[in-house]
Amino acid sequence: MQWLRDISLCTGLCLLMAGCGLVQDPAPDTAQVRVDGGDEVRLVISTEFLAGVDFGTVGDPNVEILSADTLLVTLPFDTSYTIRQDRRFLAQVLPAADTLGMDAVRLRGAIDGDERFNRTATPVDSLLQFVYVYRGSNPPTGGRL
């Protein structure tokens, strides 16, 4: 009868942990991209990329895009992407055409509703890039790795 009590105790503890959210996967579900401030931009979206940091330098991570979708979007633009499986996300804003002058645009990125990136720049002069990589139980990253 001791084994029956032990099984009941283990089952109860497992149910308690599940109810408290202690065994849930905290990986993010969605990435949201908002772009505004200009008329039209090219938006590069990817979940297939390599990202790394040059130690000793400050700034955006080095990114090598393996596969991406490039969209020509009219601003304002606001949409969400499912990232639960990939656990990474990249959004880059580029000029819509080869132009020397362009209005400043703002790129905002959020993960599960939590804003992680908010930068305004002229894409001709400055890279507007939101990079997110989920790192397990470590605090999530955004903008910079």
What can you tell me about this protein's structure?
The protein has 145 residues and is mainly beta. The chain has one domain. 13% of the residues lie in helices and 47% in strands. The chain contains 1 helix and 8 strands, in the order αββββββββ. It has one helix spanning 2-20; strands at residues 30-36, 40-52, 62-74, 77-82, 88-95, 105-111, 114-121, 128-133. It has a 4-stranded antiparallel beta sheet, with no helix packed on it. Strand 6 (105-111) and strand 7 form a beta hairpin. The longest helix is centred in the first third of the chain and has 19 residues, at 2-20. It is elongated, with a radius of gyration of 21 Å. The model has no long low-confidence stretch (mean pLDDT 81).
What is the secondary structure topology, with strand pairs?
Layout: H1 2-20, E1 30-36, E2 40-52, E3 62-74, E4 77-82, E5 88-95, E6 105-111, E7 114-121, E8 128-133
Antiparallel strand pairs: 1-4, 1-6, 2-3, 2-5, 5-8, 6-7
Describe this protein with a few key phrases.
single chain, 13% helix, four-stranded antiparallel β-sheet, 8 strands
